[in-house]
């Protein structure tokens, strides 16, 4: 116990709050496709505290917005947490450019949300599609660690976009890859993989599905006839992430719940996905505006840079 | 000294405060009330009768020596006035602006029985602003103690608690879940009512007392209260996490696009600076015709933010009458001046869909007041066949908040049925060394009440730690001793100037 007590005392709790130079250092980065990248962030206390299913709120710079990102992995020995980012809007595309090894994130708050209730099912299928592939990994690992048989079902567009296959094979008893073009694993969607898994393992007691809302809904519909408990991880729009703004409210059964403090995991058979999808599109206009504004600023900066280069060229003789 | 003041000799009229004209101010977020200048403060200070029984002090939740500081303002001893207030209230610039004085000190002012009461809040703000401008924050000599105390939440309760603990020599760290300190002062109250520079100045005052602020730290989730006490070396903990969980409308259509909580609107506008979108990345939904449900201070703030963001019409919907509205009188008045339309005795029953998932209107019904309910206010009851539709494209609800659930989810502390923390009369919770105060104990209340609770908990913590109450000794320093003014011998600096003496935890929290 002595060592663990020393450990907590000597671990940096957080960076100094408002000084411009501090932040949370990015110690590794891995680009898995032209839009998706994985960041490993140094935060020993968070690595200690994180459990499968939790998320963080990230603010990349002081003028930035607070965005929720699911914790895709945590390494208590290295003292790091791993986040997966898909560059789709202004903030995430900017992060794709600026978040390099050696830079810092302005704010990382968490781990937020309730840890996934792991249940007692003997056989569990973990389904990950798109952005959900990475966050389903800690769930698969946690189920494996408690002794369950784990079947991984992962969906990618094609073979060259597959990532973390080795990591999943380590914690899964069977891994079913699904690709849109059939270049790896089975030719089909993750729901096809899920059906296949449920055929092979009739005793599946729980399904964990993480990915775009439409995929999670399809998985929930696939398991509903068999009555297999299906957990989905929701990622609606949030501001504070601590139960204060109510922006992340979702309809689950008859109740309104906050994904940030009551979730993010919910019973997939109870979630009102139509409501979730509608709420996710609330800021589409503003998102487009922010992206256009940013791209314009980037172009201006690039033009200014190239102008400088031109002016620095030696004046041709006789000009 | 001049002849004794009586109700006949003092200026009858309350000194008005200069304000930005309503048509100018709704174009921006500059502060509305400009505050008193020296001449105005001097005139208003003339109106205090210095009553021997000081009713105003009993009306103040933290018992500021109101006649004492007003006397110093009359004598043009502004520094002395500040020291008088700061003995009990560390944040005069904040409280002068946001306290509901009309229901506290000014409500019981003797002058108020005959004339308009003395404008105590405006005088307090005058002194508080001077203190910030002249950097007068009290820096008494502090004898360090070996105790470490963690404060959870940097809102008014946490700040007040941290100040008292630091002055008593504790090593205090304040944790906040957000990326900036200040709590509701920062995310909730807009700049035109409480400029963020005022919060920064008050935070800096605390830092000068040796208090450290650690943001981005969600206590309960990053580490638990049990871990703070058992593993991290905290001798005591104060919980001031507030009641920020918004109450939902609970009517059909309340999850449509364009329906949001006042907390979300205000957090986006204030904390995240969405009003400067796209210079800042956080967007804010812009309604043209906004309906705001509720008539408390939060509702007033939300309405006035909407007007400043460019809403054409802003309507306030409240199921009781104006007399029952919980907002400060000045806020109601400002909202009215700026063009908010009030619909008293009106209750929303359904948010209408425009067919694309967005708000097209609000179905309401008229109410009338019936018998008094358990809060003592007359209960509103629907008027039959009084339904009507109000056209709007955005609905903001500000109908109250509930306890933040995170501490309850992550500790074994005893809660009441509604999720608030159970405390004894010393504000001690069910866990030894852990105290709580503010909205997380009482439910939504005012800034000054939360500060009062923070100070009370600090006193409880000091007793728990066995630290002698030295306030008597400090108070003696309020007057010159041996002909030396107090600031000349009591403003010696302590911890911040000292070399780091205990690297294990001191460097630990500032390493990054």
Strand and helix layout:
The complex is a heterodimer of chains A (319) and B (512).
Chain A lengths: L1 H9 L13 E8 L4 E7 L1 H6 L5 E5 L7 E9 L4 E7 L3 H9 L5 E2 L1 E6 L10 E7 L3 H13 L3 E8 L8 H7 L2 E6 L6 E2 L2 H11 L3 E7 L2 H11 L5 E5 L15 E4 L2 E4 H4 L2 E3 L5 H8 L3 H29 L7
Parallel strand pairs in A: 8-9, 8-12, 9-10, 10-11, 12-13
Antiparallel strand pairs in A: 1-2, 1-6, 2-5, 3-4, 3-7, 4-5, 13-16, 14-15
Chain B lengths: L21 H4 L12 H8 L9 H5 L6 H9 L3 H9 L5 H7 L11 H5 L5 H15 L13 E5 L3 H12 L3 E5 L8 H4 L8 H13 L3 E3 L10 H6 L5 E4 L5 E2 L12 E3 H10 L17 E5 L3 H12 L4 E5 L11 H9 L3 E3 L2 E8 L5 E14 L5 E5 L5 E4 L2 E4 L3 E2 L3 H5 L23 E3 L2 H4 L4 H19 L5 H6 L9 H5 L12 H8 L2
Parallel strand pairs in B: 1-2, 1-4, 2-3, 4-16, 6-14, 7-8, 7-14, 8-9
Antiparallel strand pairs in B: 5-15, 10-11, 11-12, 11-13
Account of the 3D structure:
The complex is a heterodimer of chains A (319) and B (512). Chain A has helices spanning 2-10, 44-49, 90-98, 133-145, 165-171, 190-200, 213-223, 259-262, 273-280, 284-312; strands at residues 24-31, 36-42, 55-59, 67-75, 80-86, 104-105, 107-112, 123-129, 149-156, 174-179, 186-187, 204-210, 229-233, 249-252, 255-258, 265-267. The longest helix of chain A has 29 residues, at 284-312. Mean pLDDT of chain A is 84; it is low at 1-21 and 312-319. With 319 residues, chain A is of the alpha/beta class. In chain A, β1 and β2 (36-42) form a beta hairpin. Chain A is globular. Chain B has 21 helices and 16 strands. In chain B, the strands form four sheets. In chain B, strands 3-2-1-4-16 form a five-stranded parallel sheet. Chain B starts with 21 loop residues before the first helix and ends with a helix. Classes of the chains: A alpha/beta (319), B alpha/beta (512). At the A-B interface, α1, α2, β7, α9 and α10 of A face β5, α13 and α21 of B.
